[in-house]
Amino acid sequence: MSLTSFLGWCLLLTPLVSAAYVYPNGSRLNQIRSMYAWEGFVYDIEPCKTTDEMAADFTHMKSRGARTVITFDFCGTGADASYYDDIILAAERAGIFIIPLAWTLPVHVINQNYTANDTFLIKSVPRILAVTEAVMRNPGPVLAVAVGDEPLYDDDAGSPDALAYYINNMRSNFTAAGLDIPISISELAYGWQISGNITALSDSVDFFMINEFPYFAQNAQAGGSNSSWQNLLTDMEYFETLANGRPLLITQTGWPSNEDEFAPNSPAVVASVASEEAYWNLLDRHCEDYFKAKNIGWMWRAYSDVIEGWGVIELDGTEKWPWSARLLC
Ligand SMILES: *[C@@H]1O[C@H](CO)[C@@H](O)[C@H](O)[C@H]1NC(C)=O
Ligand SMILES: *[C@@H]1O[C@H](CO)[C@@H](O)[C@H](O)[C@H]1NC(C)=O
Ligand SMILES: *[C@@H]1O[C@H](CO)[C@@H](O)[C@H](O)[C@H]1NC(C)=O
Ligand SMILES: *[C@@H]1O[C@H](CO)[C@@H](O)[C@H](O)[C@H]1NC(C)=O
Ligand SMILES: *[C@@H]1O[C@H](CO)[C@@H](O)[C@H](O)[C@H]1NC(C)=O
Ligand SMILES: *[C@@H]1O[C@H](CO)[C@@H](O)[C@H](O)[C@H]1NC(C)=O
């Protein structure tokens, strides 16, 4: 091989060997399997920030220890693949893993009014295709893909089988492109439990992305209360049975500092910064005895109060409390 063609090959291969994205044994699922403790944040993309702004947010998170980001909500119609390109590129610049989430609720939030066009086929499927397209263009930083945020709880697709269909379809396309990218849904234990025959869907996911919110429990108290931890454990036992050896990752957990965005179900609930901080610290305190012992990572919803009340920082960037969590224990 001549020197010029050798250098040409080096240039061509550069994007494939980015040191930040070397997966154990070449497998993202092994990476997920090895993760425990605090992993990172849920990041709301509804403000449609630029690549530079997102890269700055991701770099800030990373400077505080975050390793992984999962997106939440959507920008514009959510069906523009080039915006997912921007998100993935921002993650790559920051050197952080990204889990792009295809928002399958046809509208933004559950109590928003639907119009005749707000259906799964018209609004949600184009988002799934857009995410797939962008991920295939720049797979490196993509740790996994989420098809829906609580799609079973909100019954986004009409049936669990309809979701399974799109997951399997996405996987076929990844496989045909030589990509081994794990796919799942980010869902509550309750969402799986109320959805009838979940066999095909459960078989279609590579691992379980877990939404865990003791704040919504009927017996919720304060973030740091024993009931918070007990409720988490009850849900996790359900997921361990469902997963049958497949990895678990808590992709969304948190506690709000106010009740403005999502109302609670318990009259005794405490929504305050102190309560939010106490739930964060409760998770961090269980690093050794639970998260490391079980090899489970947790990601905090949310990075900022774009999801009102749920962030660790206010909209203007002010920290609500001096948050930090262990990455190793
Ligand atoms: C990588 O593969 C080897 C050999 O199969 C195995 O022993 C090891 O546990 C794997 N590493 C990870 C992180 O999965
Ligand atoms: C949604 O519909 C309800 C009932 O028709 C109405 O009261 C409410 O104002 C509507 N909300 C929005 C955001 O349009
Ligand atoms: C639904 O979409 C069609 C085709 O784009 C459009 O003509 C119609 O006005 C839309 N209906 C509503 C209620 O938005
Ligand atoms: C997979 O590829 C086929 C053929 O190009 C396409 O029709 C389908 O929409 C793709 N599926 C996803 C989830 O992107
Ligand atoms: C549930 O779905 C699976 C896969 O689609 C099917 O094989 C099974 O018979 C169904 N179980 C029941 C109880 O309907
Ligand atoms: C919470 O649980 C711990 C450990 O199980 C126990 O020691 C403590 O008394 C409990 N606190 C309350 C208020 O129930």
Largest sheet: 9 strands, parallel
Name of the CATH superfamily: Glycosidases
Whole-angstrom Rg: 19 Å
Span between termini: 49 Å
Count of helices? 11
- Mean pLDDT across all residues, rounded? 94
**Oligomeric state of the chains in view:** single chain
Q: What form results from the Cα inertia axes?
A: globular
Give, in order, the helices and strands.
HHEHEHEEHEHEHHEHEHHE
- Number of domain units: 1
Bound molecules: 2-acetamido-2-deoxy-beta-D-glucopyranose
What structural class do the secondary elements suggest?
alpha/beta
Q: How many strands appear in the DSSP assignment? A: 9
Describe this entry's structure for a reader.
- This protein has 329 residues and is an alpha/beta fold.
- The protein has a single domain (3-15, 54-300), classed as Alpha-Beta Barrel (TIM Barrel), CATH 3.20.20.80.
- Helix content is 40%, strand content 13%.
- The chain has helices at residues 3-13, 28-34, 51-63, 81-94, 120-137, 160-176, 189-193, 199-204, 226-243, 273-285, 287-294, and strands at residues 37-44, 68-72, 97-99, 101-102, 145-149, 183-188, 208-212, 248-253, 297-300.
- The protein has a 9-stranded parallel β-sheet.
- α3 (51-63) runs parallel beside α4, α4 (81-94) packs across α5 (120-137) and α5 (120-137) runs parallel beside α6.
- The radius of gyration is 19 Å and the shape is globular.
- One 2-acetamido-2-deoxy-beta-D-glucopyranose is lined by residues 197, 199-200.
- One 2-acetamido-2-deoxy-beta-D-glucopyranose is lined by residues 128-129, 132, 166, 169-170, 173.
